[in-house]
Each structure stands twice: as structure tokens, then as C-alpha cells.
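Revision sheet: C-alpha cells.
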Amino acid sequence: MLTFDKKCQRLPDFVNQLNEDQILVISLYYYEELTIEEIGQVMNLTKERVETIHQTALARLKILLEEEDIHEYIENLKNNEMEGNMS
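Predicted:
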């Protein structure tokens, strides 16, 4: 599984896989530290819509991180299997 440091390093890659609205909400909320209400004003959206975009983005990021963990786990299994065959 990815370590916390590796996940932090890869986070921009994962964020870039979101759609444009999700990227903007995540950027404004976490990097610019705007409130949900302020983001709604900037994007001309209701608070409820911004909250939906935010939650959808977080769910997508969670899935991307889990998929990355699974891919890394499979690669580790393959590498260990290959090393075992070489012995």
C-alpha cells in the first residue's frame, strides 16, 4: 500500500483526474481556504450544489487512492512471485 508520503506526492495527479468543477472546488476549499458559501459565490452556485461537488470529488479521490493501493499491491505480489521463481 502507498505510504502517506507517497499519497501526498501523488495527490495532485489524482486531483487532476477530477472534472473542472471538482478541481476548482477542491482548490478553493483546501488551498485557498474559502468556505463553501464563498465558493458558491465565486462559482455562482448554491451552497448545496458546492457541497455535492465537494463530496463527489472526495469520493472520487478515495476511489483513486484505493485503486492505486490495489495496483501497487498486485505489482508487489508479481515482484515477489518473480523473485521466488528465481531462487
